[in-house]
Amino acid sequence: MAGCPHHVPVYPGAAVCQVGTGSDSFTPIHPGDRVAISRGIQGGSHIWASVRARWVSGSGATQAYTLSLADGTVLSTQDQTTDLAAVAPSTQAGETGWEESLGSRAFVSDPGALDGKSVKLHVDLTDEDGRACSDEQTFVAYLP
């Protein structure tokens, strides 16, 4: 018995990503924004990383986050595969097709040394059909 072939959806545009922050809601990061370093319940520290994407399959999307200093020194990497959740059109200027993944942790080993520093958060996203996008934003990390 033959299995059903996998149907690859046709999208009206290229895959697009927007890296942001937030543990339970998406907040876009803009150049120069201040983003808090959060303390975890087990004593570790992290920056909340989130992604919003358009024209990708939300099932089984692989997200690779890289947190680095402005000079390119890598501080941490985090890879995960999750399903993206659909975003209501009103939350993205009336446009449809947006999905998001919230609350990934970009770990910070020495939060005191990062306080007030310029930091880059980069995301690469690839869906189960191989559609890919990426985004990177530079911001100032701070300890609240």
What does this entry look like structurally?
This protein is mainly β and 144 residues long. It has one domain: Sandwich (Immunoglobulin-like), CATH 2.60.40.2550. 3% of the residues lie in helices and 51% in strands. It has 1 helix and 11 strands, in the order E-E-E-E-E-E-E-E-E-H-E-E. The strands form 2 sheets. Strands 1, 2, 4, 5, 8 and 9 form a 6-stranded antiparallel beta sheet that branches. Strand 1 and strand 2 form a beta hairpin. The chain is elongated. It starts with 15 loop residues before the first strand and ends with a strand. The model has no long low-confidence stretch (mean pLDDT 90).
Total strands: the figure is 11
What helical percentage do the residues reach?
Answer: under 10%
Compressed to H and E, one letter per element, the order equals EEEEEEEEEHEE
Q: Which CATH first-tier class would you pick?
A: Mainly Beta
N- to C-terminal separation? 60 Å
Helix and strand arrangement:
Elements: E1 16-21, E2 27-28, E3 34-36, E4 38-39, E5 45-54, E6 61-69, E7 74-82, E8 85-86, E9 98-108, H1 111-114, E10 118-126, E11 132-142
Question: What features would you highlight for this structure?
Answer:
144 residues; mainly beta; Immunoglobulin-like; six-stranded antiparallel β-sheet; five-stranded mixed β-sheet; 1 helix; 11 strands; 51% strand
